[in-house]
């Protein structure tokens, strides 16, 4: 699995425990702190991504996020090239799925 946004990722997690903490679905702890930048391999998994957007009053901003499955990094690169999305540092990859 991979996640490929066209904006910078501030933090991410694949671990539900890190995302929710002591909170719940209506008020997860992750609303008040950065995520731990870890995958959810072998854990109770989820996908949580934090972006920092600066928007002026009445301004519109659009961004795209591609979520996909790939067998190797070359398949991810093809999608990246097709949609001209960010650099490899902005891609979250579940490496277990790639190998």
Characterization of the model:
There is one protein chain. The protein is an alpha+beta fold and 99 residues long. The chain has 3 helices and 5 strands. It has helices at 16-20, 73-83, 95-98; strands at 2-5, 11-15, 45-50, 65-68, 92-93. The longest helix has 11 residues, at 73-83. The chain is flat and about 40 Å long. Residues 94-99 have low confidence and may be disordered.
Provide a concise account of the structure shown.
This protein has 99 residues and is α+β, with helices and mostly antiparallel strands.
SS-based structural class?
Answer: alpha+beta
Rounded mean pLDDT is 83
Largest sheet, in brief, is: 3 strands, antiparallel
Estimate the strand proportion: 15-25%
Low-confidence stretches: 94-99
Number of DSSP strands? 5
